[in-house]
């Protein structure tokens, strides 16, 4: 008759279970400390455990959900009402005006480099005098 060695199998299974749990907890702490997104899939990969195992661990599951909720980005701000938004035509006109201004400034810069007289794009402004501390 063979000796009953089932206690060795139970001890090995218990040891594997404890190691798996330690890996999952360590990975969860690492992810939280480094700011990595925490969810079941990412933690399962990081800890090299199955997602189904994570779902079956009530305490880990609630901690994952708590951390996931805590790190969730804030709700986006409400959109601007339609009547306050710029129309496509308005945006196009603004783009055209900016493009024209850039073109004129480029021509002016080229003329300055070549020493040619320029038509100023903006009026001459007098600089204000700087006085000492008040």
Report the span from N to C terminus. Answer: 104 Å
The count of strands amounts to: 0
Please, what is the average pLDDT? 84
Q: Beta-strand percentage?
A: under 5%
Residues in helix, %: 55-70%
Q: Please tell me how large the radius of gyration is.
A: 34 Å
Please provide the ordered H/E string of secondary-structure elements: HHHHH
**How many separate helices?**
5
Low-confidence stretches: none
Main pleated-sheet profile: none
Describe the global form. Answer: elongated
Structure characteristics:
0% strand, 62% helix, 5 helices, single chain, mainly alpha
Please, could you describe this protein's structure?
It is a single chain. The protein contains five helices and no strands. The chain is mostly helical and 134 residues long. Among the domains are: 58 residues; 29 residues. The radius of gyration is 34 Å and the shape is elongated.
Secondary structure blueprint with pairings:
Blueprint (H helix, E strand, L loop, with lengths): L5 H29 L5 H8 L3 H6 L1 H13 L17 H27 L20
Helix pairs in contact: 1-2
């Amino acid at each position: 008759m063979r000796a009953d060695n089932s206690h060795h199998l139970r001890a090995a299974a218990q040891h594997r279970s404890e190691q798996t749990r330690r890996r999952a907890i360590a990975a969860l702490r690492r992810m939280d400390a480094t700011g990595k997104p925490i969810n079941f899939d990412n933690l399962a990969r990081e800890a090299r455990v199955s997602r189904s195992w994570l779902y079956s661990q009530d305490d880990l599951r609630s901690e994952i959900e708590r951390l996931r909720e805590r790190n969730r980005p804030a709700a986006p701000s409400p959109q601007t009402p339609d009547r306050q938004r710029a129309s496509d035509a308005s945006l196009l006109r603004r783009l055209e005006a900016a493009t024209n201004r850039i073109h004129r400034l480029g021509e002016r810069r080229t003329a300055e480099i070549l020493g040619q007289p320029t038509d100023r794009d903006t009026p001459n402004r007098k600089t204000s005098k700087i006085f000492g501390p008040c």
